Amino acid sequence: MDQLLAMRVFAKVVETGNFTRAADALDMPNATVSKLVQELESHLNVRLLQRTTRRVTVTSEGQAYYAKATRVLCDLDDIDASFNVVRGAPRGPLRIDIGSLTASSVLIPLLPDFVQRFPDIRIDLGVSDRAVNLISDSVDCVIRGGPMDDSSLVARRIGQAAMVTCATPAYLKQHGVPAYPEELRNGHKLISYVSTQSGRPFPFRFERDGEKSELKVDHRVGINESTAHLAACVAGLGIVQTFAYAAAPYLEQKALVEILRPWRPAPYPFHVVYPSNRHVTHRLRVFIDWLMERFPEGLTGGA
Description:
Blueprint: H1 3-16, H2 19-26, H3 30-44, E1 49-51, E2 56-58, H4 60-87, E3 92-98, H5 100-117, E4 121-127, E5 141-145, E6 153-161, E7 163-167, H6 169-175, E8 191-193, E9 204-208, E10 211-215, E11 221-223, H7 226-234, E12 240-243, H8 244-252, E13 257-259, E14 268-275, H9 282-298
Parallel strand pairs: 3-4, 3-5, 8-11
Antiparallel strand pairs: 1-2, 5-14, 6-14, 7-12, 7-13, 9-10
Helix pairs in contact: 1-2, 1-3, 1-4, 2-3, 5-9
């Protein structure tokens, strides 16, 4: 038995929650994953996992072994990383998850610089507005906007984006230009961004002279994906509230018009997020440092 490999496999099963996802993450056959865990249990003479047809649970002995094994694996990764630092060549895969609008408007246009600086890092970019589980989905980090309240995660602020409320000229010609937020209740068609987690629409937010308010009204269209949300506005379906950097090209081309500018809400914070109990690899560390340097540049459009 390759004990080191078996430890890595066991740790991945614990983190992903089942053998199939662990096998996919490790790019090895499911049968091999199962065999290595069984051999590790035989070697230790202890049951690490309880298996049923529906789920895998970690025994108390398995939890204790996982905690110690991950420390060993992290130390080994640190040793490898120290030599990579000497050679100046962080390498290997880096799995990142990011919302679709931020990916297309901010991160992807900046990525050629990162790829040029670190050619030995392979980027696997997951683009979706759904919330991912960093552990079970084997993601190194996520880039998300909004407040971060999960104490099990490390959230480093990487910038903030202005928010705008806008609609097409044709829509405003037909329905009128609202002079203040409450006028949106008077027959205007709102396009809401709907949470992928709760299924509820986010309220329109406004702020003026330090006074904040939220507008909750029935929407004409609700969309749970940010790129499609903005596209619905460009198509003339109604009024949206979105990121200034995403709306900027349409505002410049006069395809959209900003309204209620004196009531712009507070800027929206963005964070790079990763688990607090996971080792930060050299490739993740250089990516986070690069984000801190470059990402804010992409959030200033239309501000």
